[in-house]
Amino acid sequence: MKRLLILLLTMLFVKGLLAQDSWSSIVERRKGKVVINYYDSENFIIKKKGKYEGIEYDLILHLFDFLERRYGVDIEIEFKRASSFGNLYQHIMTGRAGEFGACSFSFTRQRMKEVQFSPSYMPDLEVMVCSEDLPIVEDTNQFVKHFRNATAYVVRNTTFEEDVQRIQYLIPGLKIKYVQTGIEVIEKISHTPNSFGYSELPNYITAFQQGFKVKRQSMFKIERLGHGLIYPQNTDWQDAIETFFKDPGFPGVMNKILKNRLGDDIKDLILELEDNLDNKEVNLLNKELEFQRIELEKRELEAERERIVRNVFIGGVIFALLVVSLLFYINLVRRKTNRELSSQKEEISLQKHIIEQSNKNILDSINYAKLIQDSILPSRDYFNEILPESFVYYSPKDIVSGDFYFIGKPSDPGSENVTVFAVGDCTGHGVPGALLSIIGKTFLQLGLSDQQVNSCAAALNYLNIGLFNILSSRFSTIRDGMDIAMGAIDRKTLMFEFSGGNRAAYIVREGEVITLKPDKFGIGETRNGQLPLFNNHAFQLQKGDTIYLFSDGYGDQFGGPNEKKFKISQMRKMFIEIHELPMEKQSEIVQQRFEEWKGNQEQIDDVCLMGVKV
User: Fold this and answer.
1) DSSP assignment, residue 150?
2) 604: closest CA among 568, 561, 564?
3) What is the pTM of this model?
């Protein structure tokens, strides 16, 4: 009986050892089993509502499906969840052939000595995220100052723990709290003031889209070799796995997995940052702003057009009333201060503080208005997408601007090759001009989706009527408006369509300037109590032509050796000099000429100049 018991235990032990197979045994027997040891990692591998999902889960299925088809074998896959990230790694480090580890593992020199890695399937980009109450810092001294009392959240035995431990050299008393998973790190930071931690870029972007209240620091970013699956050093699976990763069809498979799990926006961002690490911070910031812009446009498109116009107007009026209210409040405070100064000199310091705080509040409000105005202007990524050979020089006189620029594509059928662009110059500058620019951009955007707006002239007439109805129906004394130049290029036929109100279009061809003249009236002007109609101009472009649209701020700027205006004549000469250069170089020269001409003189108006290469 004792011998029988020993025999049964031995058989069970051997069976346990054979619970997973080496690659050579599977090839020999034409079948076998592998065990995938994993730990929860959002976006990579996780079990939700009884189903596995994630990038690495899809990759594993494709890997073993490929090996079955290539080598004619039958492979059974068993998934086992580890109790922690550290236990998972330790198990694979001492494991047997046929065992694999999955949990968005980062390549490190130490790990590559202890386990084997599959080739990297995607870049490993990590960012530091913090709670909303902590500021965005720009250098190490600021970081130590603002984060010395912060709490770092991290998963034990991960590269994130290593990254946080390095920060302890800067802040020796740094408080560290451990959580179970990477997504829990972001959840804790979102709900805990004065906290921070590290996150994979896909998890941060997903949390950002879902509205988690976290911010991204541009300092202490980590770029490692990539993400990969791991398996023991003594396994014979390496060649088989590399066959899958080197297969010509692998990039397509990986691209499809990333698209299905992350969506096109995040997938393109990940791959773009891998190829353009020098511009990573700018690209990531633009993408964050693009996500915000897309979300805003989705919500706006769900409402009726009348509601959008009404809300824009109401928002503008409320904003103007807030500014006026603040100015009125400051005026009251100043009057009270002047009365009290005659009898209570001891309160001078207190009143000065009140005035400074009030002025700061106004400046903060105007700076916030700038963020709103900047958010409605087209992003650089959008420019590169629909007008790749172009530049815009945009320089407000004050914090916010009455100048604006616009690009877009009509939504009606048959206009797939058409790109529309414009430069607008609203009456005045500062807050009033900025409010008009928001309304102007809104009506131009609405015109793109209106089937009856089928030309540049029709778009300006649509804007003219909309602005007139909003302003004149409520404030009969308002005479504000805007000058504007608008063009549309058919990239297939190279036909250029133009309409303008007091602003011309300049086309430079082989050293000569061709001027498309505008109508001698602007948006908001009337003739005999009626709104005049804008005219449409058509011009056949040639390859190599360069189009320039601009407001009057550049030419009207005083400066130079005699403190005179720059004038249109000098602008024409400058366009002839630069029109054959790359657009990025043109942009540099345009800005440099303006700054050199202005010198120490005050900028007298907003400036906006757009160049488009055909």
Assistant:
1) -
2) 564
3) 0.46
Given a contact cutoff of 8 angstroms between Cβ atoms, the answer to whether 567 and 555 are in contact is yes
Q: Which pLDDT value is given to residue 324? A: 67
Angstrom distance (rounded) from CA 117 to CA 93: 11
125 pairs with which residues across the strands?
223
**If residue 453 lies in a helix (H) or strand (E), which one and from where to where?**
none
Give me the mean pLDDT over the 179-187 stretch.
Answer: 89
Q: How far apart are CA 385 and CA 378, in angstroms?
A: 11
Q: What gap in Å lies between CA 212 and CA 208, rounded to an integer?
A: 6
- What tokens appear for 329 in the block? 């409040």
Tokens linked to 605: 């108006």
Residue-level length of the chain: 614
pLDDT category at 72 given cuts 50, 70, 90 is very high
**Structural contact between residues 481 and 474, judged by C-beta atoms closer than 8 angstroms:** no
Residue 447 has which token pair?
Answer: 């015109």
Neighbours of 561 (CB within 10 A): 7
**pLDDT of res. 537:** 95
- Give the Cβ contact number of residue 579 at 10 Å: 23
Collapsing DSSP states into helix, strand and coil, what is residue 563?
coil
Neighbours of 7 (CB within 10 A): 10
Range with lowest mean pLDDT among 93-107, 265-279, 306-320, 464-478: 265-279
Tens-place pLDDT, residues 207-265: 877 778 888 887 777 667 788 999 999 899 999 999 999 999 999 998 999 888 887 77
Query: What's 301-356 look like in SS3?
Result: HCCCHHHHHHHHHHHHHHHHHHHHHHHHHHHHHHHHHHHHHCCCHHHHHHHHHHHH
Residue 181 per-residue DSSP state: S
- 539-591: pLDDT as tens digits: 999 999 999 999 999 999 999 998 999 999 999 999 999 999 999 999 999 99
Cα 424 from chain centre: 25
The letter for the amino acid at 183 is I
Give, in degrees to the nearest 5, the angle at Cα 208 between 207 and 211: 85
Cβ-defined contacts of 85-89 (< 8 Å, 24+): 85/39, 85/155, 85/156, 85/157, 85/158, 86/156, 86/157, 88/37, 88/38, 88/39, 89/115, 89/157, 89/230
Name every residue whose Cβ is closer than 8 Å to that of residue 349 and which is 6 or more positions away in sequence.
none
Which pLDDT score, from 0 to 100, does residue 2 have? Answer: 47
Model confidence at 153: pLDDT above 70: yes
Residue 300: is its pLDDT beyond 70? no
* Amino acid at residue number 235: T
CB half-sphere exposure, 455, CA atoms < 13 A: 14
The full DSSP string for 47-113 is: EETTEEESHHHHHHHHHHHHHHHHHT-EEEEEEEE-SSHHHHHHHHHT--TTEEEEEEEEP-HHHHH
pLDDT over threshold 80, residue 354? no
